[in-house]
Every structure is written in C-alpha cells, then in structure tokens.
C-alpha cells in the first residue's frame, strides 16, 4: 500500500499536536487526583476521611469508565473519519466540559461532568498514537513510544507545579478547572490545520468501492480476537496499578499533612504572673504543598520511566520488560505503603520518585506494543479498545479500594498494601502475550 509522504514541517506539527494532546490529557487525568480532597471538603463539609476516600474512588471510577467508553468511541471514529479530526474532537470534549465544571456546586453533578470530560481523555490516546506511528514511520519506534508515554506525565508535573505555587485548598480549588479548559485552543487548531495520517488516507482510497470496513467487528473475532483480549489484560494492569494504588499516594500525603501540621491558637492563656500559665491549645492547619510535591516527585520519575519504556523493551524484548516492570513495581509499592510515611519526607519522596520511574515505564511500553498487535485498517480501534477497556477492570479495582477505605477507616497505607498485589498479576498475564519484538508494523 503506497502512503503519501508528509513534509518535514507537517511531520513536526503532527508530532507536536499528538504530544500536546496527550500531555493535556495527562493534566486532565491528574486534575481530580490533586483536587478531590479539597473539593469534597468544600462541597461536603461533613465528610470524614473515609467519606473523602469513597468520593476519591468514585471520581477515579468516573475517569476510568469515561475514558474506557471514549477510547472505544473515538478510536472507532479514528478509523472511520480520520485520526486528526477524532483527536481534535477528543481534546475539545475534555477541555470544554472541564471548563463547564467550574460552575457546579453539587458533587454528583461534578461527578457526571467528570465522566463526560473523560470520554475525550480516552479518545486522545488511540488517535494520537496511531497518527504519530503512521505519519512518522521512519522515526525510531522506541523514541516515539517514549515521547508519547512521557507526554501525559509532563501534564502531571505541570499541574503539580501549579498546585505548589498556587495553593489548592477548600477555599480555592476551582481555578484548576479553568486550567483544564485551556487546551480547547489546541483542539480548534488541530481540527482545522492538523494533516491526516498518510497511511489512513491510502487505506481509505484503497477501500473505495469495496464493502464498508468493520474495524470493531474485526478486532472482536478471529484471528485478531486473541490479540485484543491479551492487549486488554496487559493494558489493565498498569491502569489498575495507577488508579487503585499509585494515585492514592497524593491524598495520603494530603491527609498526613493536614493531621500533622499544628500551630498555637491565637487565644492567649492566663497571663497573670501569679497563676501558672496553661499551654495554649493548638489548632490544625493544612499544608497544601505536600500533595503537590508528591505529585511532582512521582510524575517527574514517571517522565523518565516513560521515556525508557520503549528503549528497554527493544533491548530486552517486549515480554521480559513487562515482567520486570511488574516485579519491581510490586516491590516498591509494598515497601512504600508497608514501611514508609509521608512525614518521612526524604525517604518518602525518594521512593515515590523511584515508584514513578518504574511504575509508569508501562506507559512507555504500551505505545510501542499495542499498535504492533493490529494492522493499519483497525489500528486506532484496536489500540483504543485494548488500552481503554482495561479501565473498566480498573474501575472495579478502584471501587474495591474505596470499599477497603471504609473497612480500614480511612487508612491509605493499608489500602495501598492490598491493591499493590495487582502487579503480581501482570507477571502472570504477560507470559501469554505474543512477542512482537522483531515484527514490523503491519499495513
């Protein structure tokens, strides 16, 4: 199949738009990890820590289920109307709906809008990855996978930096929703000026006059069905690990900071020299920076891990790399939640950084591996379904973590110790995956 070549400038624009689209999607993903606790303390003042943990789980589920549905919807659209238009629609979806959330004062309404916004988050990934792989075929695949894997984590760090310099508190958290609306500009530019995938255009032209393509049906029946199932399982492990395990580091740090920071009350004790003074009572004062530092530290490590994921997979092989990532992630998660405390800032931030490096290496591996499972005619659909369907399984894991929060009375450390066991499952699943290390991307 002959594919038309893009100019150098067009290829740079494709790579930039794909990177930025997924980077801002990363900002959207991390948004409610960072703000749920202060938002719920504002919207539901009577909520205790276990209740806040339950709300955190529900917002995680809204993201996971919304992104899963969006991956199917916009991935299918990418194979029908083109990668660039579908990616633009995804960006506009997540940015505009997040901006509309600024006006909401009911937590259930906020939850509903979060689900709709995350349709767009799920839709960006398959189209951005497919477009970049197809429009830049001569670029190193590990480099491309690393850049796409790192993009979302750059968004995590950017939001963490904003949260550090501009405190996110129960009194001032809504401004972050306006930040989440800003990528709408990119969505408009992408819709009108981003070139289409040459491979997709060539495939559309070759299909003209033939029976209509059925990409969704094709990936759900032999011979591609087995690859679809394996891809879903492999995509589910890191998503569950992130949503039901690693993301809980941020509210855990916020909880510990709130409980551990105290100052003397302004009300004075008895000041008479003849009467022994009584210590002034202390009141709790939140430190809004610790959660931001935790997100910055973990996501900073994640950028490195994402960039390395594709290279390591090319050196060691796809399957052995996934196995090692799962093994080391299990060890780090168990150590952090079992033996550390966010108050131990040096150790906690060091191992949070390492957990970010290793635990997110998955997301530099997935953009390399998942597109290799499918031919061009169904690549966007197959990549979207395999990566995002894992989010449905992850939603069940997050709800389970929310149940554990209730059972353990708001103890984030005990919840994290249990949910980290999902990485052991990844060590098993990858043994059944096909090794595509030496296979070219199929037209």
Structure description:
With 443 residues, the protein is an all-alpha fold. The protein is built from 18 helices and 2 strands. It has one domain (9-201, 216-261, 284-432): MFS general substrate transporter like domains (Growth Hormone, Chain: A, Up-down Bundle), CATH 1.20.1250.20. The protein has helices spanning 8-43, 49-80, 83-100, 107-135, 141-165, 175-181, 184-193, 198-207, 215-219, 225-244, 249-260, 289-316, 318-339, 345-359, 362-369, 379-407, 412-419, 422-429, and strands spanning 262-264, 282-284. Strands 1-2 form a two-stranded antiparallel sheet. Helix 3 packs antiparallel against helix 6, helix 10 (225-244) packs parallel to helix 16 (379-407) and helix 13 packs antiparallel against helix 18 (422-429). The N and C termini lie close together (7 Å).
Strand order of the largest sheet: 1-2
Q: What is the first-to-last residue Cα distance?
A: 7 Å
Helix content: over 70%
Number of strands: 2
Named CATH topology: Growth Hormone, Chain: A
**Which CATH architecture is right?**
Up-down Bundle
Please report the first level of CATH classification, the CATH class.
Mainly Alpha
Rg, nearest Å: 23 Å
Order of helices and strands: HHHHHHHHHHHEEHHHHHHH
Shape: globular
Poorly predicted regions: 261-273, 275-285
Question: SS-based structural class?
Answer: mainly alpha
Overall mean pLDDT score?
A: 87
Strand content: under 5%
CATH evolutionary superfamily: MFS general substrate transporter like domains
